[in-house]
Specification:
binds flavin-adenine dinucleotide, five-stranded parallel β-sheet
């Protein structure tokens, strides 16, 4: 007889594994099925974690090469790519094994294999030997994440035509890389390889990089990346990618119809990701998808089939690990009879380049579109003593506050540790704080966070250091 669970979670990424742990904490008998052979999903295996590892090491390499300017003589700085990749793999293994440990600690059953619906209460599991077993379950949470999208007619071979997964595992430093798409994944991976010596060209169809980001920040971001040596070809469309003896040729056309061919060793296609919902046999139980093949859910993450729920990249919303995690916790609490919810207005997003770029809440463009009157407070890291002291003074903090009530509506930061700084604004916004509340909160000196305080002061035109 097949084992019976209160809840089965399909997919062990940040949405699924966090959900499974929370369900177990709440006293529900829980299993989590994962097909990849290790827990942690895209994020830990081929996403957030390996990319941040490579960003950190490549940044250190870049800094080490410039040590002599700071009075540190270390001799010749050489790159050992094999060792660098091993270091990245080690970070991934430690973290994915850490999730296994958390499953054991919380008594979540970890089931290896591909899960799909036999019926609304029976889940089939196909293991890597093609052996099929079944689990009985009261409820199921689908958290099967997303997959990289390619261009029509172009297949990833992960050697020359790369998705982010291939770009995280190159065996040698390419001479020239074309990055198709100026979103955060392309820019992070482009930065890694550019720092290691690759000539990087970003081809972007739109006028600005990182679509959806506050325009002023996005323009500053591109300026800084250009200074770092990354080449941008905006309002340019990729027409064709053809593999050749030396790598690939990428034929593009700009907004005036001029055609340019880029020869390169590798092409990274980072034009977005699609929900991974094909392998679940959803038709059998009639779970509805939207036009983008995302699973349709209501506010409590329930699908049209009452005992089936869905979260993370497989449903609507920003494809971010922390969004998936928060949904995992919320759905677990809902299933346990509590009232879990996610505040979609206050989800931070961070690009982990140097400098980092972080956003939360509304952009200026959104406020204009929604006819909301706002005030702007801005403060440059050029006037922040900590940033100047360590010579990392590029960028600024921008806070948008309601014109009448002074309530913080959004914040956008480009600068050192922006990804950490945005956290304080998130808490302030959750508590309905005004810019004045932030401005009157004592911030330690000398810290980058003083730039946040000064930006908040500047909303009322009373910044001290500018
Ligand atoms: C290069 C890169 C960098 C990124 N960096 C960041 C970042 O810095 N910050 C951030 O917030 N986000 C980042 N992301 C996005 C982040 O990884 C995803 O938003 C997040 O992993 C989504 O979590 P999830 O649990 O919904 O899905 P996933 O992490 O995709 O996990 C889904 C899991 O389900 C498994 N699965 C699928 N189908 C089945 C099945 N039928 N049976 C069993 N298992 C199945 C898959 O193998 C996978 O492990 C990055 C992504 C990439 C690609």
């Amino acid at each position: 007889m097949s084992e019976k669970f209160d809840v089965v979670v399909i997919g062990g990424g940040p949405g699924g594994y966090v959900c499974a742990i929370r369900l177990a904490q709440l006293g529900l008998k829980t299993a989590c099925i994962e097909s990849r052979g290790s827990l942690g999903g895209t994020c830990l295996n081929v996403g957030c974690i390996p990319s941040k590892n490579l960003l950190n090491i490549s940044e250190n390499y870049h800094k080490a090469k410039n040590f002599s300017k700071l009075g540190i003589e270390v001799g010749e700085v050489k790159l050992n790519l094999e060792k660098m990749m091993k270091n990245k793999d080690k970070a991934v293994t430690i973290l994915t094994k850490g999730v296994e440990f958390l499953f054991k600690k919380n008594k979540v059953s970890y089931i290896r294999g591909t899960g799909s619906f036999k019926s609304a209460n029976t889940i089939s599991i196909l293991d890597d030997q093609n052996k099929e077993t079944y689990l009985e379950t009261e409820k199921t949470v689908i958290s099967t994440g997303s997959l990289p999208i390619s261009l029509p007619g172009v297949d990833f071979d992960e050697k020359i035509i790369l998705s982010s997964t291939g770009a995280l595992a190159l065996q040698k430093v390419p001479k020239k890389m074309i990055v198709v798409g100026g979103g955060y994944i392309g820019l992070e991976m482009g930065s890694v390889w550019s720092r290691l010596g690759t000539e990087v060209h970003v081809i972007e169809f739109l006028e600005n990089i990182t679509p959806g980001m506050d325009r002023e920040i996005s323009i500053e971001f591109m300026k800084i990346l250009k200074k770092q040596g990354i080449n941008f070809h905006m309002q340019t469309k990729v027409e064709r990618i053809t593999k050749n003896a030396n790598g690939a040729g990428v034929l593009t056309s700009d907004k005036d119809g001029n055609k340019v061919n880029f020869d390169c060793d590798v092409v990274l296609i980072s034009v977005g990701r699609k929900p991974n919902t094909d392998n679940l046999n959803l038709d059998t139980i009639g779970v509805e998808l939207d036009e983008k093949k995302r699973i349709k859910t209501d506010k409590s993450f329930q699908t049209n089939v009452s005992n089936v729920y869905a979260i993370g990249d497989a449903i609507e919303g920003p494809m971010l690990a922390h969004k998936a995690e928060d949904e995992g916790i919320a759905v677990a609490e809902n299933i346990a009879g509590q009232s879990g919810h996610v505040n979609y207005d206050i989800i931070p997003s961070v690009v982990y380049t140097t400098p980092e770029v972080a956003s939360i809440g509304k952009t200026e463009e959104q406020l204009k579109k929604e006819n909301i009157k706002y005030k702007i407070g801005k403060f440059s890291f050029m006037a922040n003593s900590r940033a100047k002291a360590i010579d990392e003074a590029e960028g600024f903090v921008k806070i948008l506050a309601d014109e009448k009530t002074d309530r913080v509506l959004g914040a956008h930061i480009i600068g050192p540790h922006a990804g950490e700084l945005i956290g304080e604004i998130g808490i302030a916004m959750e508590f309905g704080a005004s810019a004045e509340d932030i401005a009157r909160t004592c911030h330690a000196h000398p810290t980058f966070s003083e730039a946040v305080k000064e930006a908040a002061l500047s909303v009322d035109k009373r910044a001290i250091h500018s």
